[in-house]
Amino acid sequence: MPETVSIITVAYNSEATIAGTLGSVLAQSYNEIEYLIIDGNSSDRTVEIAEGFRPQMEAKGIRFRIVSEPDQGIYDAMNKGIRLAEGGIIGILNSDDWYEPDAVETVVNEFAKGECDLLFANIRMHKADGSSFVKKARLRSIQTSRDWNHPTMFVKADVYKAHPFRMKGIHDDYGCYLQMRKEGLRVVVVDKVLANFRMGGASNHKSIREAAGRIRDRYLWCYRVNGYSRWYLLECIVIEAAKMILG
């Protein structure tokens, strides 16, 4: 039987962007998909918009589920989605991002080779002025989030379920990836754009105080908790400096 891929979208008051996210899942060239919307009890039309896609999802054979209830933040919602997921591979797509049409098919083909526990790929970054650029995915001995793109990451379900997000800071997704890599899980990088990321979220706010908080979170809950060198504090500072300067 074809492998089922579970896609999780965490949403909260996302009525302005979630239709594009849903549409990109509906447009996938691979149909053996379980799609979970984990909504944090939105007060806008997020759930209504998502429900409007149900007939099309079901007509295409996509198993579609919406859960809307209060949660303790984005990583609590992601953990909930991972617990509920029934597919053999899990991907997480933010409610303002979107997949390329062949993203899931590409992922299934890579996992079928039997050589990875998780993979990630290139991503196209979209700026507010309408311009965009490709952020490449890489594996290097010196670890940096500049090489990693969470919306393109797909993980074997049993691996994700065994590595819940710690809910310690804004970079818990990166910390989870570092934990998996530190444990020696097989990682594959796909040199292809699989997803699109809309810039300007919480991790890009240009505030000295918020940047300092992100440096602390990344250093403590990504690098140090996973046994990386204290020198990685410098990488955290460089990343935030680049955001302040380049946007």
Would you give an account of this structure?
This protein has one domain (5-200): Spore Coat Polysaccharide Biosynthesis Protein SpsA, Chain A (Alpha-Beta Complex). The protein is 36% helix and 22% strand. It is built from nine helices and nine strands. Strands 1, 2, 3, 4, 5, 6, 7, 8 and 9 form a nine-stranded mixed sheet that branches. The longest helix has 16 residues, at 208-223. 36% of the residues are buried. The model has no long low-confidence stretch (mean pLDDT 92).
Question: Could you give a quick summary of the protein structure above?
Answer:
With 247 residues, the protein is of the alpha/beta class. The chain has nine helices and nine strands. The chain is globular and about 50 Å long.
Strands, helices and their partners?
Blueprint: E1 5-11, H1 18-26, E2 33-39, H2 46-52, H3 54-59, E3 63-68, H4 74-84, E4 89-92, E5 98-99, H5 103-111, E6 118-126, E7 132-135, E8 154-156, H6 157-161, H7 172-182, E9 187-198, H8 208-223, H9 232-246
Parallel strand pairs: 1-2, 1-4, 2-3, 6-9
Antiparallel strand pairs: 4-8, 5-9, 6-7, 6-8
